[in-house]
Inverse folding.
């Protein structure tokens, strides 16, 4: 297929912008299908397609963004892939697979802060879906690369989510103990955690103090 000239491409992109401004979905999508053959980067082309479909509130925007993210990942452009998955979690906050991908990709990037933030967003959904074993596996896998401060955030997140969802006492106490252990490994004071427990459920505050006393 003969490639359009530089001038004709400029005109086509201008027309695309015009169609978008006027809200002419079919014409905009039609001209984009022609223009995408002029884009050398397939991942970028898919990302633009996702932007266009999202503008017109098309559900298929999700598929385009996912394809773009996978292509970026395949090309080794992990930062672009994570940016797209972050965008997808904003648009579709209840789709756990995007958060799982973010945890995986940020692990590849060795980015403890982003790993922690993504996993903290995922934890409530996993507990609600009774997938605590997945959380345990993730925390165990991530222990070698996460500083104790980050581990503390995650164990504390699990603890209070379990309390919020009124889970089994023994399970809650298990995570209270793990949180206390990581706080101490980080050489931080446990007072704030103990205080927060009291604000949620005095019973757990009492048990935490008892556990702390046994460790001293």
């Amino acid at each position: 297929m003969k490639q359009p000239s530089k001038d004709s491409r400029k005109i086509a992109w201008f027309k695309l912008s015009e169609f978008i401004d006027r809200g002419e979905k079919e014409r905009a999508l039609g001209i984009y299908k022609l223009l995408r053959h002029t884009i050398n980067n397939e991942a970028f082309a898919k990302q633009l397609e996702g932007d266009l479909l999202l503008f017109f509130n098309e559900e298929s925007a999700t598929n385009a963004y996912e394809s773009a993210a996978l292509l970026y990942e395949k090309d080794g452009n992990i930062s672009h892939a994570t940016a797209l998955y972050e965008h997808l979690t904003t648009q579709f906050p209840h789709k756990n697979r995007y958060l799982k991908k973010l945890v995986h990709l940020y692990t590849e990037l060795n980015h403890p802060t982003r790993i922690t933030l993504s996993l903290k967003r995922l934890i409530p959904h996993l507990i609600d879906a009774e997938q605590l074993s997945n959380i345990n596996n993730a925390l165990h896998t991530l222990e070698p690369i996460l500083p104790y401060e980050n581990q503390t955030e995650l164990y504390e997140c699990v603890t209070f989510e379990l309390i919020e969802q009124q889970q089994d006492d023994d399970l809650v106490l298990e995570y209270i103990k793990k949180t206390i252990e990581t706080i101490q490994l980080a050489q931080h004071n446990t007072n704030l955690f103990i205080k927060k427990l009291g604000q949620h459920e005095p019973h757990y505050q009492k048990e935490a103090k008892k556990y702390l006393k046994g460790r001293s």
Q: What stands out?
A: The chain has a mean pLDDT of 90. The chain has two domains: 10-92, 103-216. The radius of gyration is 24 Å.
